[in-house]
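Entry: Calcium channel flower domain containing 1
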Amino acid sequence: MSGSGGAPGASASSAPPAQEEGMTWWYRWLCRLSGVLGAVSCAISGLFNCITIHPLNIAAGVWMIMNAFILLLCEAPFCCQFIEFANTVAEKVDRLRSWQKAVFYCGMAVVPIVISLTLTTLLGNAIAFATGVLYGLSALGKKGDAISYARIQQQRQQADEKLAETLEGEL
């Protein structure tokens, strides 16, 4: 893919790529596959939305087709070989943090639903929204173990007690 073979100096300029952010290789592929399936889903549902006389449905359908193009451009740039800037866009998107991708993909998927709330827009954007959710879950990170959590809680409690003692001493 585009981010795995990039120059080492390019990824250090802004954010670390996904593999340095704690994503495993299979989860990264799951996110990409979800993005491609979401693009196909958006494109097909967008075409069906455009076959109507209602202007809001047409606007939602055009937005969904645009979402499909952007998802393919970001997640599978090899599908857009005829576009000169596809690899550069994909490299820039790979340097984004997972939470930024999550907000971007979920935001793109919600707009057509707000424009025209129909079953076609809901089902068509569900996989694209799920891609954003997957990236959001990866931004949260792995679940911590109970020992680490208890240690953090104990440190916070000790810090609170010290703060309370200093405040009582000042009064």
